[in-house]
Write a structure and sequence with these properties.
- Helix 4 (83-104) crosses helix 13 and helix 15 (317-326) runs antiparallel to helix 16.
- This protein has 21 helices and no strands.
- The protein is mainly alpha-helical and 440 residues long.
- The radius of gyration is 22 Å and the shape is globular.
């Protein structure tokens, strides 16, 4: 069903059907979050187990004519085999291979030392955040920024005694700043195309939301940095070992495909490792294998989440959300809040901000036309709130990647995600106060 066609729903979904359709997501949250809270430890409940339980539940409760167990499993499997899911799995595999081989040759330690030399200890937080903002805006992908910077940030945290989840959150927050604003970001393209406005016009609206949020958060990091003790002495004797990480940042900024970037980086690690004697051929293969195995949990979570969300979509979960939200709209503020909630809940059910925007774009356009909203504002709302939710769900690709590379739980990172929380508060105020005036 095309997004535009979803605006005309001939078959209404009952409350019972709709609630049943989205219940697997509730089951996951209950199993994972509630169990973790009861245990008092977010590491005690494996996220893979929570997704396995909710995935099996989703298959069991999916009902309909001619829906045999084989058909339900087929629907689940179609979600797992989606091209976007498979692409993400390839990124996980290559990211693991690169990260592990880079660690084996000492690239991570060299890059950390180089960063500590270039950035004063009291500006380390703000410096990393602004670096993530710049790189993500140039690259147009939050995933690429996370892959490039999280290992460096985690290394800095371990060497200086800082909180690994906190410094990882700095990178992830900055990564979504660029994802929300970049002209080459897929979310920007999707939002502007569905709402019928130019990317430059959407940028002009978005910058009024994202820039103040970034300035506030950067100021917070500067204040936090003033309380930070001096960093340990860093040596530049092996600075050339930082070249693999510097190369993938440069290639990403130049627009090279993220898979190609990671593959080139891994080959460069091999060359440096052979020349420096860090490992032989078999040592290189072992490091790559260890890196891939280290990503196994992320791959399993990605597959289970994609399958479960496919069942939710098939059973009408998204349609139910759309129908419920658009039933009682009153005025421009109400219309803008509905668009925001629509894309946010869709993102919650798809774990992909681009797909969420494409899925609900037609409905948002209909609402925008009916209530005479500025398409530039509606595109900005869709992009902002989809990125906001994507940055805070523990099963989103960016959070899974960050937690895997940093070796911490996704939920421990979310607590330090200052940028999304500040951006969300500013975006809500912008709707309430009808800002920016020119586009409201």
């Amino acid at each position: 069903m095309l997004p535009r066609e979803r605006s005309i729903m001939k078959n209404k979904i009952s409350n019972a059907q709709g609630l049943r359709a989205i219940s697997p997501l509730v089951v996951f949250l209950l199993v994972y979050l509630v169990s973790s809270v009861v245990a008092g430890d977010f590491y005690k409940v494996p996220v893979t187990t929570a997704f396995l339980i909710s995935s099996v539940y989703s298959i069991l409760i999916c009902k309909g004519e001619d829906l045999s167990i084989d058909k339900r499993i087929s629907i689940f499997s179609e979600g797992v085999s989606d091209k976007n899911v498979l692409l993400m799995i390839w990124i996980f595999i290559l990211a693991g291979a690169f990260a592990s081989s880079a660690k084996a040759i000492g690239s991570v330690e060299a890059t950390v030392n180089l960063t500590l030399v270039l950035l004063p200890a009291k500006l380390i937080f703000a410096g990393l955040f602004l670096a993530a903002c710049f790189i993500s805006m140039a690259v147009g992908t939050s995933v690429g920024t996370v892959v490039a910077l999280v290992p460096i940030a985690a290394g800095i945290a371990q060497d200086t005694g800082m909180s690994v989840p906190m410094i990882t959150a700095i990178i992830v927050g900055g990564a979504f700043f660029g994802d929300n604003l970049s002209f080459i970001s897929d979310t920007t393209i999707a939002a502007t195309k569905t709402q019928g406005c130019a990317m430059s016009d959407k940028f002009k609206v978005n910058i009024w939301l994202a820039a103040p949020a970034a300035i506030i958060v950067a100021t917070i990091y500067v204040i936090m940095g003033l309380k930070n003790g001096s960093a340990p002495d860093a040596q530049l004797s092996s600075w050339f070992l930082a070249i693999p990480y510097l190369l993938i940042i440069v290639l990403a900024v130049c627009g090279v495909n993220v898979l190609a970037v990671l593959a080139i980086g891994t080959l460069l690690n091999a060359v440096i490792g052979f020349v420096m004697g860090s490992f032989d051929w078999f040592g290189f293969l072992a490091s790559v294998g260890d890196g891939i195995l280290g990503m196994a949990e992320l791959i399993i979570v990605t597959m289970l989440a994609a399958g479960m969300l496919s069942i939710i979509r098939y059973c009408g979960g998204l349609e139910y959300i759309i129908e419920s939200l658009t039933r009682h709209i009153r005025g421009k503020r109400g219309a803008e809040f509905v668009i925001a909630a629509l894309v946010a809940l869709s993102n919650l059910c798809t774990a992909n901000n681009t797909i969420a925007i494409i899925t609900t774009g037609g409905i948002a356009k209909d609402i925008s036309d009916k209530f005479s909203l500025d398409p530039r504002k509606s595109a900005s709302i869709m992009d902002t709130f989809s990125c906001l939710v994507q940055s805070l769900i523990p099963y989103g690709a960016q959070m899974l990647m960050a937690s895997g590379l940093a070796g911490v739980s996704a939920l421990s990172i979310i607590g330090y995600m200052y940028y999304p929380f500040v951006l969300g508060a500013i975006a809500i105020l912008a709707i309430l106060l009808r800002l920016p005036r020119r586009y409201s």
